[in-house]
Design brief:
alpha+beta, Beta-Lactamase, Heat Shock Protein 90, five-stranded mixed sheet
């Protein structure tokens, strides 16, 4: 009887000795489980942080690209026709930018230039109704209050479709392209100028051929007749004609040589001091015999004499070309040569005529090389161009005021 209690006591004692180890095992398992959960949480948190960092970096790069390209990103809900801007980095400058965010697409089209509005509206409608999958348009946008426009370029495509395949959302980009359009316009103008220059050069060669051949034929023809002429008066008349045509030929050659030397920089300024009255009087006397009998040539000098310092040869050439030009186009009335009182170290010399005048559309081109207002008037089209280049080399400029049928006034302003 005593053995049974003793055995029970021993079992209880052994049970209490094993319990701590069992508890410790449970604790260890729980600890391992907790550590594993903590590790997973840490890894998940680290992964989320890396993702956030990546997204942040992506957003910075995304905005940087948009900013550099000056793009705006917009969405169009085809059901409501509402525009929503996500980002807008268009360069506004001093131009007015209407806030179209949240507006209906039809309202934004009204802001476009009438020349482009219908075309852009049709392209957007075709995209929204699924007739086209992409959209690309360049158009002008009206600027309120100053009647000007600026240029934009837009691209768009379908972002979402419904079960029937109809577009429900359009995503697009827009950017300002004023500079590009200005460059395109400049290139077109440069091409037109190059083509016009080529045409003028061709015309110049033809003019030069005619201008040189005319006096040369007279020289050769009259010279061949001289041996057969015995009458002194008739002989002298032929010699005068030969001399006149020789001077014409030399004048044409001098024009070509002068403009060639100036443009190549081979001819340097020779500054001298002289009386302006004498220079202008000599230029007038040179052409006095060439003036139409119905034309009176006179002068109007602001002073009895005026001593100036400049390149006398170039100024004399300018004056002769302007007077020569007046004699060609004036058949009646007056040709007046003069200058105004000097001001601020400059003097304005002018040649006024009552000739045929110059049309307004030709005033800007009158100083271009080879350009001739009237192809039937003798000359190679270099005179006024030479005046312009020579006046610039003297630190001055040549301007013209003229009305068709009322005459012209050419002015040369130079420092003295």
């Amino acid at each position: 009887m005593l053995l049974i209690p003793t055995a029970n006591i021993l079992l209880k004692v052994q049970h209490f000795e094993v319990l701590p180890f069992v508890l410790m095992g449970f604790v260890m398992v729980a600890l391992v489980f907790f550590l594993r959960m903590q590790l997973r949480h840490t890894q998940q948190l680290k992964s989320e942080l890396n993702l956030l960092e990546s997204l942040g970096k992506h957003n910075v790069e995304y905005e940087f690209v948009l900013g550099v390209m000056r793009l705006s990103i917009w969405h169009l809900d085809t059901a409501t026709g509402q525009l929503t801007f996500e980002q807008d980095f268009r360069e506004k400058g001093n131009k007015y930018f209407s806030n179209v965010d949240g507006m209906k697409v039809g309202e934004t089209v009204l802001a476009l230039d009438p020349r482009d509005a219908d075309r852009v509206n049709k392209a957007l409608t075709d995209l929204c109704e699924g007739r086209h999958s992409s959209y690309h348009e360049e158009y002008r946008v009206k600027v309120p209050y100053d009647n000007s426009v600026y240029w934009e370029e837009s691209y768009a495509t379908v972002a979402e479709r419904n079960a029937d395949g109809k577009p429900t959302k359009i995503i697009g980009t827009t950017m300002r392209i004023d500079n590009r359009k200005a460059m395109e316009e400049a290139l077109v103008q440069a091409r037109n100028r190059a083509e016009e220059s080529d045409r003028l050069k061709t015309a110049f060669i033809a003019n030069m051929s005619h201008e040189i051949r005319t006096p040369l034929n007279a020289i050769v023809g009259f010279t061949s007749l001289l041996p057969d002429i015995t009458d002194d008066a008739e002989r002298q008349g032929l010699l005068d004609l030969v001399n006149e045509n020789t001077q014409k030929l030399l004048h044409i050659v001098d024009d070509v040589v002068n403009i060639s030397k100036i443009e190549s920089g081979q001819e340097q300024l020779v500054m001298t001091t002289f009386d302006l009255n004498n220079l202008l009087t000599e230029a007038m006397n040179y052409y006095a015999s060439k003036v139409n009998p119905n034309v009176e040539m006179k002068h109007s000098f602001a002073q009895e004499y005026l001593t100036i310092t400049t390149d006398m040869v170039r100024l004399s050439t300018i004056a002769k070309h302007l007077i020569s030009n007046a004699t060609k186009f004036t058949t009646q009335g007056t040709i007046e040569v003069g200058y105004d009182q000097p001001q601020d170290g400059r003097v304005v010399i002018w040649v006024r005529d009552t000739g045929k005048g110059i049309a307004e559309e030709n005033l800007e081109r009158i100083f271009e090389r080879f350009f001739k207002v009237d192809e039937f008037v003798p000359g190679a089209g270099l005179g006024l161009s030479i005046c312009h280049v020579m006046a610039y080399s003297l630190g001055g400029e040549v301007t013209v005021d003229s009305k068709l049928g009322e005459g012209s006034v050419f002015r040369v302003s130079i420092p003295i």
